[in-house]
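Help needed: design a sequence for this.
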């Protein structure tokens, strides 16, 4: 039984690893977004209904692995989410994380830096929001803005009050190196980093902006600034291509998620996250022999206290039902929140 389960898990792991390979940016590869990645890719699934079961499976696995990650308390996971406007960052976070215990996940959104933030080194505000061991942090925009929007609009760099030598030629190459070094330090010390770029096409962005105008309930989402930013589309594509080329590393790889179909982007994002957690393979801690013997002594005491007519141990039949994941040993309070597959695709 345990063995069969183990084989299934192994197969699932291989299947998932194969699924995410096309999205991964190979370390050292030179990326040209327009040439190398298709925003409309849908893996031959064609219809979102075919994807619903897949997403539900991903969401469920994520909840399962998040519980183990928290129990093991060794690794933290940092999910970096970058995209152009209307690519679906918010919806991706909402759907992919829908089954996860809210206590185990923190989402941080990074906007235009405050005066206090500009008074510090550029990684300061991101370092303050890193996950603790056992936790998952999602950066909704991230330190990558420092080589994206800051590069496309150099006046942002002016505002950073850097010494002259730090803002001269070579600043972007240097920042790539610094980011890689920082991420390496983090991964060497138990913070796993996985980076997702939601890759939207220019035409799909136009359609989504129009939809925000056409549907009154969506008007609040529409921002004229986003349309202005669209004028810099080519500069952003270039800045993203460069960043992906220089900062996809063995220790913190980038994944380019096709984002023209929201439902597919969610499946792909969930798959990448589950795959990362499976690589970490966190385990529920087990107790040593001595502690186990102590527990059995306490058990005997509790059994002796059973009132007349009550079973000494009402769970006696269940206790052999363990599987290799140790799931049966989890207390009820540690069960992940129920998975909502119905709302997974809108
Ligand atoms: P949404 O629009 O869905 O609420 P958002 O992430 O677009 O989410 P906004 O408040 O619209 O949030 O935009 C945040 C803005 O902050 C973006 O234009 C982004 O480029 C900008 N920004 C983020 N980090 C930096 C930075 N380090 N320097 C300058 N601008 C930044
Ligand atoms: Mg915005």
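Sure. Designed sequence:
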């Amino acid at each position: 039984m345990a063995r069969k389960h183990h084989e299934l898990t192994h197969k699932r792991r291989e299947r998932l690893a194969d699924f995410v390979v096309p999205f991964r940016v190979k370390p050292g590869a030179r990326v040209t977004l327009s040439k190398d990645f298709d925003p409309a890719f849908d893996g031959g699934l064609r219809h979102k209904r075919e994807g619903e079961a897949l997403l539900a499976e991903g969401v469920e696995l994520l909840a399962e692995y998040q519980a183990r990650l928290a129990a093991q308390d060794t690794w933290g996971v940092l999910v970096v989410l970058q995209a152009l406007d209307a690519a679906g960052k918010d919806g991706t976070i909402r759907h992919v994380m829908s089954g996860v215990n809210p206590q185990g996940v923190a989402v941080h959104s990074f906007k235009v830096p405050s005066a206090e933030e500009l008074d510090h080194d550029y990684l300061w505000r991101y370092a303050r929001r890193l996950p603790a061991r056992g936790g998952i942090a999602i950066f909704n925009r991230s330190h990558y803005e420092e080589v994206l929007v800051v590069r496309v609009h150099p006046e942002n760099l002016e505002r950073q009050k850097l010494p002259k030598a730090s803002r001269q030629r070579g600043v972007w190459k240097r920042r790539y190196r610094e980011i890689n070094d920082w991420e390496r330090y983090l991964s060497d010390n138990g913070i796993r980093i996985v980076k997702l770029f939601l890759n939207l096409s220019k035409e799909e962005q136009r359609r989504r902006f129009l939809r925000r105008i056409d549907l009154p309930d969506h008007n609040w989402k529409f921002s004229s600034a986003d349309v202005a930013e669209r004028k810099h589309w080519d500069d952003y594509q270039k800045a993203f291509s460069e960043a992906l080329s220089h900062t996809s590393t063995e220790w913190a790889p980038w994944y380019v998620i096709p984002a023209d179909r929201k439902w597919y982007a969610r499946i792909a994002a969930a798959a990448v996250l589950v795959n990362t957690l499976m690589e970490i393979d966190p385990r529920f801690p087990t107790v040593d022999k001595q502690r186990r013997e102590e527990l059995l002594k306490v058990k005997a005491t509790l059994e002796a206290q059973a009132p007349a007519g009550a079973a000494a141990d009402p769970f006696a039949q269940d206790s052999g039902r363990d599987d290799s994941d140790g799931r049966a040993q989890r207390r009820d309070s540690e069960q992940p929140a129920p998975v909502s597959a119905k709302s997974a695709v809108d």
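Strands lie at 76-83, 105-109, 136-140, 191-199, 254-258.
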